[in-house]
């Protein structure tokens, strides 16, 4: 059966992705000769800011004791990786790849946690607005206080809704063209 044009394009793009991944691996081997875990050793031995932040989170600092690559705790990512590299580790090799996966996962986790916190705060502020709106508006003092609270809560909502925070992060990805 003949391939459709869309299938031909899909296969062509997949071949391009595979070729690019191979080129990136070769580039990494050419440039990054010293394994990352050897470079990281002094950071692991001393109490650095990295250790401080992980300590604040109640987590252990990732260990880089050899040049093994990334590995998920559950093994689920490796299962997905066999089906679709977009969710896998296939393009991340060695301890440097492990560090890059950790960096990306920390960023994604921070975004997800920020979204959950934002959703929680919005729901709680809206609940407080509802309580203020249920106040007795017949009493002028109560009405004034309730309207001031509603105004204050609405300003809080404005800060939370549809806003993004910009956080500077050093560039760690390199693309060779």
Describe the structure concisely.
Helix content is 65%, strand content 0%.
Structural summary, described in words:
By secondary structure, the protein is mainly α. The protein has one domain (7-160). Helix content is 65%, strand content 0%. It is built from six helices and no strands. It has helices spanning 5-31, 36-45, 49-57, 76-83, 94-133, 140-160. Helix 5 (94-133) runs antiparallel to helix 6 (140-160).
Topology (elements, then pairings):
Blueprint: H1 5-31, H2 36-45, H3 49-57, H4 76-83, H5 94-133, H6 140-160
Helix pairs in contact: 5-6
Distance between the termini: 37 Å
Radius of gyration: 25 Å
Tell me the helix content: 55-70%
Low-confidence stretches are: none
Q: What is the number of helical segments per DSSP (H or I, 4+ residues)? A: 6
Tally of individual domains = 1
Mean pLDDT: 86
The quaternary organization reads as single chain
Report the strand count: 0
Strand content bin: under 5%
**Category from helices, strands and their pairing:** mainly alpha
Largest sheet: none
The H-and-E topology, N to C, reads as HHHHHH
Shape assignment:
elongated
Offer a few descriptive terms.
single chain, elongated, 177 residues
């Amino acid at each position: 059966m003949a391939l459709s044009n869309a299938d031909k394009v899909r296969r062509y793009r997949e071949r391009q992705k595979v070729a690019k991944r191979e080129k990136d691996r070769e580039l990494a081997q050419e440039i990054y000769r010293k394994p990352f875990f050897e470079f990281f050793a002094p950071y692991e031995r001393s109490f650095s800011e990295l250790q401080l932040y992980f300590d604040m989170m109640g987590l252990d600092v990732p260990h880089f004791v050899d040049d093994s690559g990334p590995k998920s705790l559950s093994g689920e990512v490796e299962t997905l990786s066999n089906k679709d590299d977009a969710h896998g580790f296939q393009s991340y090799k060695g301890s440097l790849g492990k560090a890059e996966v950790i960096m990306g996962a920390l960023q994604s986790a921070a975004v997800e946690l920020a979204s959950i916190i934002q959703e929680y705060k919005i729901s709680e502020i809206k609940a407080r607005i509802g309580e203020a709106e249920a106040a007795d508006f017949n009493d002028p003092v109560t009405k004034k206080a309730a309207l001031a609270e509603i105004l204050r809560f609405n300003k809080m909502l404005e800060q939370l809704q549809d806003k993004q925070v910009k956080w500077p992060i050093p560039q760690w990805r390199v693309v060779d063209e």
